[in-house]
Structure formats: structure tokens, C-alpha cells
Amino acid sequence: xxxxxxxxxxxxxxxxLNQKVRDHQLVYFDNGATSQHPLAVTDAVxxxxxxxxxxxxxxxxxxxxxxxxxxxxTRRRVARFINATHPHEVxxxxxxxxxxxxxxxxxxxxxxxxxDEIILTALEHxxxxxxxxxxxxxxGAILKVIPVNPAGEIDPGDVLKLIGPRTRLVTLAHVSNxxxxxxxxxxxxxxxxxHNIPVLVDGAQAVPxxxxxMQEIGCDFYAFSGHKMYAPxxxxxxxxREEWLNRLEPWQGxxxxxxxxxxxxxxxxxxxxxFEAGTPDVAGIIGMGAxxxxxxxxGFDEAIRYEEQLLHYATQTIGxxxxxxxxxxxxxxxxxxxxxxxxxxxxxxxxxxxxxGIAVRTGHHCAQPLMDHLKIPGTIRASFSFYNxxxxxxxxxxxxxxxxxxxx
Length: 408
Known about the structure:
By secondary structure, this protein is α/β, with parallel strands linked by helices. Helix content is 40%, strand content 17%.
């Protein structure tokens, strides 16, 4: 079904797209790594630095109060955007990686013992593998892995097979960054909760492309990054259900996260500040608020439908090229098309594609265990945004044909 989404109007909001790379009009298909930023976001960040740059929460002067209000307005806006129950369930972090590390450290320190088990999937980004490995090294817990089928899908039934009396947490990506697979996070959360097991979801690749609803998913923790959803780099969110955040100890100490400090004892601040030690990235937080407002202004649901059409078109056109193998053909996908060209190494193909002004990502995409399972060195990944066009996909097709020609 065609949408009425005005992509040309949208593109005018992103000045970076209006440039040439290697004498070709830029085509930016690396949105899975980081999205570009609309003027609404860069203007908001500039406005903060130019008009009310100040530290937050502890100042009684005017600039501090304005900055604090803007930051806390964003917290409330994020809570509405993901349908959290309370704004204080929104913890600002540096990104998805820090958010997952926070839970892995604090949860592990409190709840993991030797022989306990953490369940994750074979689709995970390193950011949802390594922190749990580190937690296991500290505590003696072990990892158990949900397998993936050749299409890049997991079977929720395999979760039930792995859950046992020592299972302490299930963690998984909402959307695979390497393959674009949308995992059944709601169903898996329900299964885990039947056994009183909490669930953490890595939402880095989901939030830019899907409506995410904490009440509908029901998970206990949800992590995502600003820089993949049109907000600045270096800012992210950990959503945590209030009852779980209250049970966890802080993972960093310093200013803001305290209530009282003496040399004998420290008492901790209330949520969310208990987990926000030190000076926050106020500009990044304000930029995230502007990004969420921008998505609402352009019609986020319409943008999602347009992206679905774009991915379908790319899948059909690129997948029909002789010698091209699509990697990851899940029935439920978003945002990402990974592929290989004949026997050409992804790095070599990506280098040639770049000469046509087209930005794609090549390699293992921080998912080495998945690539090892698929027995490939990596893929070429085109990851899409609502500011991309069908014509840009056609340009990628032309570049792929050139790769095939050059490598015979």
C-alpha cells in the first residue's frame, strides 16, 4: 500500500544529504550505525549552548533552572514515547552499550551466583554479549544461547527449552543490527515472566523503525541509543521497571546520585538520579527530546510505513540480481538488508560501492558469533531511513553491477 509520505520535503531537513561524495550525490545507507540529524535537532543543541548552557539540578540561578527544566521535559517526553509508567523509570546513559553494562554490573552484583544462567540469542550485538560475559567472569554464572535458523529467526520454543531453575535473566535484541530480524520480544517476555525471570531488551535498532511500547512488551529493562534515532551521539536511555531499579545498586558513584555523604556512609538519591552519577550530557538529552518531537511532527507512523515499502523494494530489486545472496530472510524484518556479491569479500565490495558515493557498512557488524554461525566473514549491510529513496536503491543496484563487472 502506497503512502503519501513526502520524502523530498523530509530530505530538506537534513543538510548533510545535499552533498557530493567522490563526484556523486551522497547516498547514505549506514543508518544502522548512526542516523543523520535534522535541523530541528542541531538547532535545539545549538540553542542550548548559545542561550542557556548551564549545569543542571544543583543551581538556583536562572540558566540552571532553564536547563534543568529542559532536561526533565525530555525525560517526560521519552517516557511518553516508549509508554513507560513513570518518567523516573527513564535513566539517561551514554547509549545502549552503557545501559546494558549498567544492568549487567548492578544485576550481576546483586543476583548472580556461581552456576546461575543468563539466556541470550545467537543474534546479539557484542554490546549484549560482552557485558554478560564479564558479569559471568565476576560471579561464576554461565551463558546459554538461543539458536538461530538459516533465515535469521529464533524459535520462542527454544527459550522454554533453555529456561531452568538457575535461569536468572533473559536478554535479547528487539531487532538484529546485522540481519534486521524483528524478534518476538513480547512473547519471550511473557514466557520468561511465567517463570519469574526478568527480561532485558536491546532496542537500539528497533526504536528508529518501530513503535515500542513498554506496557505492551512488558519487559523489565529496555535500552536504546539517541544516535540511531536522529538524536546526538553520546546519549541513550535505559528504561527499567521501578521495582527492578529499586532493587539494583548504583554502578557508578559521584555527584547527583547521592542523598547524603559522610566519610562513614553514603545514602543514595531517589530514582532516576540514583543511576545518573556526575554531570549529564545536557545538550544530548535536549537533542533527544527534539528528535522525538521531530518524529511526531513528520508523522512517525507514516514514516514507518514508508520504510517498510523501501525495504521491500530493496529486497526485491537487490535480491533478484544474479550472484547476490541475501543474508537474513526473516519473515519479520525492518531497517536492514544484508547481502553478499558472488565470492567478493564484503570489504572489497564496500570499497568499490563507496566510489559511487554510496555509504554502506561491511564486516561482521559487531556480531562475530552470528557470522561464525553463518560461516561467512561478514556482509554488506544497507540500512535504511525514511529520508532514503527508491532511486537511491537503484543507484546501489548499479554499484553492485559494477562490483560484479570488476570481479568478473
